[in-house]
Amino acid sequence: MRNSDFLWVAFATGLILLIPLIAMQFTNEVQWDTTDFLVMGFLLLLTGGLYVLVSRRSPRRRRVVIGIMFAAIFLLIWAELAVGIVDSKFAYLIAADAILFAHVLFVVFVIFGLLLILAGKVLSWSWVRNPWFRLVHLLGIGIVVLQSWVGAICPLTDWEMAFRSKAGDAIYAGSFVSHWLERILYYRAPEWVFVVCYTVFGIAVLASWFWVRPRSLDNSAG
């Protein structure tokens, strides 16, 4: 399998999301809002991406079984969110914690991604020049910077708060980073401080693109 597998996952996700979108034009039985599309897209991308990563490290004869397992987990989660199979509050809390975990992974990826790129330059690690890794990393911090400039809250934070609210759990206002920075350091910084920090970090990531040049997409092996 190659990196293009992730593109096929994204393409398949788009095709699947077209089904309810088209159905809504012909019948009132299908009523999806923006949240439904976002949650379904997130679940499809997450499930497909995890399948690609796991199947790459598994024997070919086991990939069908792995695919069935991931499909079953996906259908169970979607069915629970749609109609509720177990206690709804518990399901909403699980969904909120899963999004929180994904958010933490994203923050870790953005921060430590830059540190690893810089270390890779010094230690001559060839993998830090992988164009797909670098593109995703640059896109990730680019989205964060853009959101800070327009004063938008990360969609992951909105989804987490929506699920926690439905579960009757405590919610917080503001951004994910500012909330947890306050919880950990007991200090509330003005919003402009985060805008400046995100922007400076984004400039550093952009500069690393030129200092530690990624390989071309035509030569992305390794």
Please provide a written account of the structure.
It is built from eight helices and no strands. Helix 4 runs antiparallel to helix 6 (155-167). The relative contact order is 0.09. The mean pLDDT is 80. With 222 residues, it is mostly helical.
Topology, please?
Elements: H1 4-23, H2 34-56, H3 63-82, H4 88-123, H5 131-150, H6 155-167, H7 176-185, H8 191-211
Helix pairs in contact: 1-2, 2-3, 4-5, 4-6, 4-8, 5-8
**Low-confidence segments:** none
| Rg (CA only) | 20 Å
Largest sheet: none
Fraction in beta strands: under 5%
Going by helix content, strand content and strand pairing, the class is: mainly alpha
Instruction: Provide mean pLDDT, rounded.
Output: 80
User: Topology as H/E string?
Assistant: HHHHHHHH
Provide the domain count.
Answer: 2
- The strand count comes to 0
Helical coverage, percent range? over 70%
Span between termini = 13 Å
Shape: globular
Total of DSSP H or I helical runs spanning 4+ residues: 8
How would you concisely characterize the structure shown here?
Helices cover 73% and strands 0% of the residues.
Give keywords.
single chain; 222 residues; mainly alpha; 2 domains
